[in-house]
Amino acid sequence: MLFEVWAPQAGDRVExxxxxxxxxxxxxxxxxxxxxxxxxxxxxARYGYALDGGPVLPDPRSRRQPDGPDGLSALVDHxxxxxxxxxxxxxxxGAVLYEMHVGTYTPEGxxxxxxxxxxxxxxxxxxxxxxxxxCPFPGRHGWGYEGVSLWAVHEPYxxxxxxxxxxxxxxxxxxxxxxxxxxxxxxxxxxxxxxxGPYFTDTHHTPWGAAVNLDAPGSDEVRAYLLGxxxxxxxxxxxxxxxxxxxxxxxxxxxxxxxxxxxxxxxxLAAEQGRELFLIAESDLADPRTTTPRAExxxxxxxxxxxxxxxxxxxxLTGESQGYYGDFARAPLAxxxxxxxxxxxxxxxxxxxxxxxxxxxxxxxxxxxxxxxxYTQTHDQVGNRATGDRLSASCSPGLLACAAxxxxxxxxxxxxxMGEEWGASTPWQFFTDHTDPELAEAVRSGRRREFAEHGWAxxxxxxxxxxxxxxxxxxxxxxxxxxxHARLLAWYRELIAxxxxxxxxxxxxxxxxxxxxxxxxxxxxxxxxxxRVAVNFAKEPVRIPLGSRGRVLASWEAVEMPNGxxxxxxxxxxxxxxxxx
Length: 581
Fold this sequence. Notes:
This protein is α/β, with parallel strands linked by helices. It folds into 3 domains: 2-57, Immunoglobulins (Immunoglobulin-like), CATH 2.60.40.10; 97-501, Glycosidases (TIM Barrel); 508-579, Immunoglobulin-like (Sandwich). The chain contains 15 helices and 27 strands. The strands form 7 sheets. The chain has an 8-stranded parallel beta barrel with strand order 9-10-11-14-15-16-19-20, surrounded by 5 helices. Strands 2, 3, 6, 7 and 8 form a 5-stranded antiparallel sheet that branches. It is elongated, with a radius of gyration of 25 Å. It starts with a strand and ends with a strand. Its main location: cytoplasm. Its EC number is 3.2.1.141. Pathway: Glycan biosynthesis; trehalose biosynthesis. It catalyses: hydrolysis of (1->4)-alpha-D-glucosidic linkage in 4-alpha-D-[(1->4)-alpha-D-glucanosyl]n trehalose to yield trehalose and (1->4)-alpha-D-glucan.
């Protein structure tokens, strides 16, 4: 077995600790900073590296951390798993994604338990499950965005074999699997990378401290480390796509950026394996170059989240105007109409939240709509609220139905956040399980201080370290059978089935979307091919000019086609989908 580690920080000695013994590594004359040794070992063997007589540390490229981020690494032989199912031939066009946090999707909080609930997603009609980060992090429960060991799977979730069983089960049901990966920072706890090499740089600073080194000395190997991790998820675990966290925080001044390298490598792997693989970016830059193909001068990512659509919809539903919602809340229906037809609300316009102009227009003629994800809620937009309250805590079932109609019949690739399909009453709160008492207290006090500045009493902000915070965030599956949850779930199923059966709802032509609205009366309608969709956010009935011809495909409340005047009366907080006659 070849053991190799990049450790340019080491002076004159690197030792492999394996089977209770020490084995010296030698410098690789062909690769600067690399140390190698040939030692017999098999699947599951525990090991670590000691640099210059220091403590034994986990392997930066560890495939498994059985005892958590601070423990020894373990070898993983990926050839031992017998795959039962081939990945489905599913790309992003026509997809409906479902964002899932393994630790709260079920009370058990494991990949095997989550796999046992995949039949719900099949019945719902979604095509892909998007897993929040799975890399090891301190303790048992957490969001996963403070992970380390970017090649490994959190052991309390079940470890590497459990992820393979999950992906295999999903593929057997025809579901694709997307994994959320974090390249812009690593958790402070259990992060031993700086002992090995210049994985971080003070050349740039981020909200998490020193930036991941993508462009300073030593960055070639750091980029290779991240690329190798990304490709491992796609190759070794048969993941179908990756969601890249906060790519705007990837400080990178090199002519060939890391994101371009990554997209090229993923496209090459897709061609090699003969299946569609894709990358979805989270970015707040409102820059269409993120998803513009590399051949046309873009970064080449295959899709990105569209927070502008979410913010406009959220303000229309709730009337909230704090923080970044302020730009959208001044005329929420106008903002919503703009995002439906033009993707970005800020496309070179002034942002009061940023106190500067922001964004760049999307080429509506050349850019397919499915490159952008549209959603009513996400882990960020729920969990980063003081009490983790979902839309269901403040919106009527009718308004939730309107939101679903806009996301599921709109031009973007829809994404649901787990539980929204039945209007889950359970919150989704920020929770951690830090084993370092000082870090735990820093997170607890920092969160309370942050929300105190916005008027929240400290005692009203949940303690992230309290196990009850995680427990409150677990889905209550029994709700699906009770009203009003059962009716909303049936509505989601109906809309997703409609999206799958109506070609106009998969039309990628942004320029063909036609939107009308009345800000004061609080209604909005749009046309997609031969289909018309109308929503009424008001508490009173409204009359909307939808034409006298057509038939109702789906409606939240009973409606009748208009007479000769072409005006349809839409009940309060309701929505309808019509087809031309």
